[in-house]
C-alpha cells in the first residue's frame, strides 16, 4: 500500500465515523422532539362519566362487582384488592375500557397484582389468596395501601356465604362511625 491509499482509508474511516455520529444525533433529536416537542398531540383522556356522585358504601359479590367495569350502567369502575372494593372511576384513563389496566375493571385484582399474572383473573370463584407466597402477599398489601391513598374505598368483596352489611352514611371505610357523629 502506498501513503495515499492509507490516507484515503483514514479519511473514509473518519468520514463514516462522522456520518454515524451525525445520524445518531439526528435520531436523538427526533426522539426528544417526539417526547417533549409535540405535547399537544397526545390523546387527552376522555371523561366518560363526568360528575358521578360519590358511591355509597356497600358490599359486593364477585357477580355484582362485574357490573362496574366502566362499560355497563353509568360507567363507574370498581376494583377489589385484598377484600376491599375501590372506586377507580377517576382513573378511567388507566382502568377504563381502552386503558392499560382495563382487565382489572369490575374484578378482584389481588392475585393479578401480586403475581403479575392475569391467568386466574377470569375466574368466577372467590380467591382467598391463601396460597400466595409471603412476598406476593406483601405485594398485595402494598397495592392495597396505594389504592387506599388514591381512591375511595366503597365496600368489601364478600366471601361465599357472607351476607351484605348495611352501612349508614356516616360510617367510614372501616365500618366504624366517623368522628363527626
**Sheet with the most strands: spatial strand order:** 1-5-3-2-4
* Content of β-strand: 5-15%
> How much helical structure, as a percent, in the residues?
25-40%
CATH topology heading of the largest domain: Flavocytochrome B2, Chain A, domain 1
Largest sheet: 5 strands, mixed
Task: Count the domains.
Answer: 2
Q: Which structural class fits the helix and strand makeup?
A: alpha/beta
Ranges where pLDDT stays below 50 over 5 or more residues in a row are 40-49, 173-181
| Count of beta strands | 5
- Please state the average pLDDT score: 79
Count the DSSP helices. 5
Radius of gyration: 27 Å
Terminal CA distance reads: 97 Å
CATH-level-2 architecture of the largest domain: Roll
Amino acid at each position: 500500500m502506498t501513503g495515499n491509499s492509507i490516507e484515503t482509508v483514514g479519511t473514509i474511516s473518519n468520514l463514516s465515523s462522522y456520518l454515524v455520529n451525525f445520524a445518531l444525533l439526528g435520531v436523538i433529536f427526533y426522539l426528544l422532539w417526539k417526547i417533549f416537542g409535540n405535547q399537544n398531540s397526545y390523546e387527552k383522556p376522555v371523561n366518560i362519566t363526568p360528575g358521578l356522585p360519590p358511591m355509597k358504601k356497600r358490599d359486593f359479590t364477585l357477580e355484582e362487582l362485574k357490573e362496574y367495569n366502566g362499560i355497563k350502567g353509568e360507567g363507574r369502575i370498581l376494583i377489589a384488592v385484598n377484600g376491599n372494593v375501590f372506586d377507580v372511576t377517576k382513573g378511567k384513563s388507566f382502568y377504563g375500557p381502552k386503558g392499560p389496566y382495563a382487565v382489572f375493571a369490575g374484578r378482584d385484582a389481588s392475585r393479578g397484582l401480586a403475581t403479575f399474572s392475569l391467568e386466574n383473573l377470569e375466574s368466577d370463584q372467590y380467591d382467598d389468596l391463601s396460597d400466595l407466597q409471603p412476598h406476593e402477599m406483601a405485594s398485595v398489601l402494598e397495592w392495597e395501601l396505594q389504592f387506599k391513598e388514591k381512591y375511595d374505598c366503597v365496600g368489601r368483596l364478600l366471601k361465599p356465604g357472607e351476607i351484605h352489611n348495611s352501612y349508614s352514611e356516616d360510617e367510614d371505610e372501616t365500618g366504624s362511625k366517623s368522628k363527626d357523629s
